[in-house]
Write a structure and sequence with these properties.
Layout lengths: L1 H25 L2 E9 L12 E9 L4 E9 L5 E8 L8 E4 L7 E6 L2 H8 L3 E7 L7 E4 L3
Antiparallel strand pairs: 1-2, 2-3, 3-6, 4-5, 4-7, 7-8
C-alpha cells in the first residue's frame, strides 16, 4: 500500500514540476513598432511630422507597454490614441495615449479582444492636432 502511495505522490510531483517548468514557455513578450507620418493617415495629409512608437506586449499578463516620440507637427498634439482597424482603414479608439506630449510612455492591460486585434496587426497609433483633428500622424502597429 505504501509503495502505491509513494508512486502516486511522485507522479503528482512530477506533473506539477512539468507544469511549473512549461508555464514560462507558454508566455511570450512580443515586440511591436509603428512609424508615424501624415502619409499613413486615411486619407493622407501633407504633415511634415514624423515619429515612432515602440511597444512590448506580455501575453501572460496581457500588459502592453509603449514609448515613443514625434516632431514636426503643425502644433501641439491635442489627443493621441491607439485605434483598432486594418491598415488603410479608420477605426475607433481602443486605448488613449496619455500624456500625449513628446516623448511619451505608458501601459495598459488589454482585454482578450483587444489583444487579438493587436496581434493581428489591426491597431494603429494616431496623434491629433488642431490643424488635423482627425489625425496628423499615424502608424500601424506591427511585429
Amino acid at each position: 500500500m505504501s509503495s502505491k502511495i509513494l508512486r502516486t505522490t511522485m507522479t503528482l510531483f512530477g506533473c506539477v514540476g512539468m507544469l511549473v517548468i512549461a508555464s514560462p514557455l507558454v508566455a511570450e513578450t512580443v515586440n511591436l513598432k509603428a512609424s508615424l507620418s501624415g502619409k499613413n493617415e486615411v486619407p493622407p495629409n501633407d504633415s511634415k511630422g514624423t515619429g515612432s512608437v515602440t511597444a512590448s506586449y506580455d501575453t501572460a499578463s496581457k500588459k502592453l507597454s509603449w514609448k515613443g516620440n514625434y516632431s514636426g507637427l503643425s502644433g501641439a498634439a491635442t489627443a493621441a490614441h491607439f485605434h483598432s482597424a486594418e491598415e488603410g482603414k479608420n477605426g475607433g479608439v481602443t486605448i488613449p495615449i496619455a500624456p500625449n506630449a513628446s516623448p511619451f510612455e505608458g501601459s495598459a492591460t488589454l482585454t482578450d479582444a483587444q489583444a487579438a486585434d493587436l496581434m493581428a496587426g489591426k491597431w494603429y497609433a494616431n496623434f491629433h492636432t488642431a490643424a488635423h483633428p482627425a489625425g496628423e500622424v499615424r502608424g500601424q502597429v506591427k511585429k
